[in-house]
Write a structure and sequence with these properties.
It is built from 3 helices and 6 strands, in the order E-E-E-H-H-E-H-E-E. The chain is α/β, with parallel strands linked by helices and 141 residues long. It has one domain (2-135): 3-Layer(bba) Sandwich (D-tyrosyl-trna(Tyr) Deacylase, Chain: A). Strands 1, 2, 3, 4, 5 and 6 form a 6-stranded mixed sheet that branches. The chain is globular.
Length: 141
Amino acid sequence: MQRVTDASVRVEGQIVAQIGPGLLVLLGVTHTDSEAGARGLASKTARLRILRDGDRDEAAAVEFAAPVLVVSQFTLYADMTSGRRPSWKAAAPAAIAQPLVTAFCDELRQLGVPVETGVFGATMAVSSTNDGPMTIWLDAN
């Protein structure tokens, strides 16, 4: 995830989601992930203290209703151990991944976080301005 000043997703040239200051979450799902893990990760995301609040450099996303733009990204599980072409074996298939991405977003919304999303399975053009820069790898495990 990245703390951003703005982020957007375009599909076929049309903006389908955009946020101002908040978090851009690039969400990868693997075979061993679960709904409980997705919901736990969402809860952790909502409570991170990495957003700016005026002169303070820490604030919980849920306290300030900072938006989150969630983009499913199976490429996070690319395996480059052999050759020059990535293997996607570690990425969960759509039938497993899509419900977990939805569970992650639903949990954020239940926690009061405004959520925008990309389009699952679409070719997306993601634009963002990283604020800081601040990029964090967060794992459900």
